[in-house]
Amino acid sequence: MQLRDEAIQEYRDECQDLLERIRATLTAMGQTGPAPEHDRALALDFQTMKGSAEVFGFQQIARLAESLQSADVRVDLILKGLDHIQRLLEMVKKDRQEHADSLSTEFCHELARLRMQPISSILNRYPRMVSDLARDLSKVIELKLEGTAIKLDPAMLEALKDPLTHIIRNAVDHGIESPADRLAQHKPEQGTVTVRASLEEERFIIEIADDGRGLNRKKIAEKAIQEGLMTAESVQHMSDQEAWQLIFAPGLSTADHVTTLSGRGVGMDLVRTHIDRIGGQVDLKSVPGAGTTVVIKILRKPISIQPW
C-alpha cells in the first residue's frame, strides 16, 4: 500500500511538472505566435500525461489529456482543461475517485460542445461546385442551403464531406433535367437542389432534395436484374419504396455512359456504408417527374472517423 501511495505521489508530481510545461508552451505561443515546435511539445506532454494516467488506472485524466492534445482545440479550452486536470489531481490525492469521474465526464461534454463548428464550414464549398457542374452539363441549377448555423462535432463534419459531395453531384447529374426537358414538362428552366440541415432532439438530420426527374423504377429494375441482384418476378412484387432501395446495392449505376461524374460503379452504396460507419442512417424518397430527396440522420455526438 505504501509503495502504491509513493508511486501515486510521484505520478502527481510528474503531472504537475507537465502542467507547468504545457502552460509555459502556451505562454510562448502567445508571445511569438503558434509554431510547429509548440504543437509537437503539447502533443508530447499530453501523450505522456495520458500514458501515465492509464498505468495507474486514472482513465478520467487520460481521456482529458487525449481530448486536449488535438491540434484544433483552442488555447482557452486547453487552459480550462488544465484547470480541470489540476482539480482531478486533488481528487486523486483525497481518493475521491467517484467525484473525479463525474467532473471529467462533465468537462469532456463541455469540451465537445465548445469544439462544435457550424455546418456552413462544409456547405459553403458546394455553391461553386454546383455552378461549375451545371455549366459543364449545360444545365441551369440553383443550390439552396438551409440550417447552416447548426453546429456539429468537427469529426462529424469531416465525415459528411464526401457523402454530401457524392449526393449533390448525383442530384446535378442524374436528377435535374436539361433546360429543354424541363420546359417540355412545364417546369421552370432552372432546377433547384436544396440542402436542408435540422435538429430533432439528439439527432442531426440533413436532407438533399432536387426538383428533377425523380428515380426511374423501370431502369433501376433492369439494372438490378442485369447485375443478378433481383429476379424479374421479385421486382414485379416490389413497392416503389423497396425499388428505390436498390440504388444502394454495391456497384449499381443507372448511367448509360461512363463519365467523370457517372457510371464508374461507385454509387450510393458507398454513401450508405460511410454513413453506417459513423452510426447514421441514410434513406431516400422519390416521386417520378417531381424529384428525389436523400435523408441522412446521425446522432449528434463526437465520433472517430474512418477513411472514405
What do these coordinates show?
Strand 6 (281-287) and strand 7 (291-299) form a beta hairpin. With 308 residues, the chain is an alpha+beta fold. It has two domains: 2-115, HPT domain (Four Helix Bundle (Hemerythrin (Met), subunit A)), CATH 1.20.120.160; 118-299, Histidine kinase-like ATPase, C-terminal domain (Heat Shock Protein 90, 2-Layer Sandwich), CATH 3.30.565. It is built from 13 helices and seven strands. Strands 2-4-5-7-6 form a five-stranded mixed beta sheet. Mean pLDDT is 81; it is low at 95-101 and 303-308. Helix 2 (36-56) packs antiparallel against helix 3 (59-68).
What key attributes describe this structure?
308 residues; alpha+beta; Four Helix Bundle (Hemerythrin (Met), subunit A); Heat Shock Protein 90; five-stranded mixed β-sheet; elongated; disordered C terminus
What are the SSEs and their pairings?
Blueprint: H1 2-32, H2 36-56, H3 59-68, H4 75-93, H5 97-115, E1 117-118, H6 120-123, H7 126-136, E2 141-146, E3 151-152, H8 154-175, H9 179-184, E4 191-200, E5 203-210, H10 217-226, H11 232-236, H12 240-244, H13 268-277, E6 281-287, E7 291-299
Parallel strand pairs: 2-4
Antiparallel strand pairs: 1-3, 4-5, 5-7, 6-7
Helix pairs in contact: 1-2, 1-4, 2-3, 3-4, 3-5, 4-5, 7-8, 8-13
**Total domains:** 2
The number of helical elements comes to: 13
Based on secondary structure, the structural category is alpha+beta
Got a strand count? 7
Mean of all residue-level pLDDT scores: 81
Rg, Cα atoms, Å = 26 Å
* CATH fold-type name of the largest domain: Heat Shock Protein 90
The rounded distance between the terminal residues' Cα atoms is 50 Å
